[in-house]
């Protein structure tokens, strides 16, 4: 088992073999789709994200000020003009502390893409009080950036979830992580459709040093694919999303990429932090910033 501290999106399509009752994901209003860049459902393989498609996407890194070099190692999700949601284990790295957050990016090392990258300093990191490194339970944290984000089509927050995510049949995962295990991180923001595996992680995932009590069905989501499609190293802290049915150009962040066994083994689901479980804590921390 490994944390997805360097994690990417290898992709998902068909329905897994278990007979479970799922909530059919509502389709956005067609007229509304014309005015925004929502992920097209007909695309099931791993693909680069479109410009302005995921304006809440964040990438976290450590910038060595003396050498003026930055190492990027985790993802995140903008949820207010000051707060980025991520995984707790992203605050524990050998690279260095998170001290930089990039928003509005699409493809790194390309200044001709349709993007509006902007780097923010880190004012404070807020770890969930029940997270105990190196365990991956309660694997959730917030990063308070050093100034308010000016919202535009490239930088805009995702919505928090309305439900616990258990009944949804599909999710969208995004990130700049590796495209295969031991591969190189992607310069391009990638997207993939993954499927909800219900409580299958209770039987499919064995306990290990990071999850000694096994899968926690209350605080974690079990998500995977029947094909060789997944998140991978470098995507840690990034989101799994669903469409916001009330606001067609918006997404709800349902989960946070946390850990997995491999990057692309069919029908071996990965573990994601269930954001809805932590709504009370999130609301308290958001209120403090306001």
From TrEMBL:
GO molecular function per UniProt: serine-type endopeptidase activity
Presence of the UniProt keyword Transferase in the record: no
Keywords: Disulfide bond, Hydrolase, Protease, Serine protease, Signal
Peptidase S1 domain ranges (all copies): 43-287
GO BP term (any one): proteolysis
Domain of life of the native organism: Eukaryota
N-terminal signal peptide: 1-17
Annotated Gene3D superfamilies: Trypsin-like serine proteases
Family: Belongs to the peptidase S1 family. CLIP subfamily.
Protein name: Peptidase S1 domain-containing protein
Lineage: Eukaryota, Metazoa, Ecdysozoa, Arthropoda, Hexapoda
């Amino acid at each position: 088992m490994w944390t997805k501290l360097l994690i990417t999106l290898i992709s998902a399509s068909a329905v897994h073999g278990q007979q479970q009752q799922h909530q059919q994901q509502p389709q956005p209003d067609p007229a509304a789709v014309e005015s925004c860049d929502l992920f097209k459902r007909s695309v099931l393989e791993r693909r680069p994200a479109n410009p302005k498609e995921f304006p809440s996407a964040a990438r976290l890194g450590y910038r060595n000020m003396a050498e003026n070099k930055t190492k990027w190692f985790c993802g995140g999700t903008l949820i207010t003009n000051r707060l980025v949601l991520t995984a707790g284990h992203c605050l524990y790295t050998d690279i260095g502390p998170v001290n930089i957050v990039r928003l509005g990016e699409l493809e790194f090392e390309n200044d001709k893409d349709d993007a509006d990258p902007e780097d923010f300093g880190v004012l404070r990191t807020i770890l969930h009080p029940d997270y105990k490194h190196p365990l991956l339970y309660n694997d959730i944290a917030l990063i308070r950036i050093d100034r308010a984000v000016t919202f535009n089509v490239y930088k805009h927050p995702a919505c928090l979830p309305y439900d616990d995510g258990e009944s949804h049949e599909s999710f969208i995962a995004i990130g700049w992580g590796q495209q295969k295990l031991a591969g190189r991180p992607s310069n391009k923001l990638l997207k993939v459709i993954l499927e909800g595996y219900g409580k299958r992680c209770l039987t499919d995932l064995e306990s290990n040093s990071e999850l000694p009590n096994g899968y926690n069905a209350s605080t974690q989501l079990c998500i995977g694919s029947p094909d060789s499609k997944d998140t991978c190293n470098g995507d840690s802290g990034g989101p799994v999303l669903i469409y916001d049915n009330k606001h067609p150009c918006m997404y709800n962040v349902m989960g946070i990429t946390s850990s997995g066994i491999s990057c692309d083994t069919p029908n071996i689901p990965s573990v994601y932090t269930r954001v809805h479980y932590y709504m009370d804590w999130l609301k308290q921390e958001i209120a403090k910033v306001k």
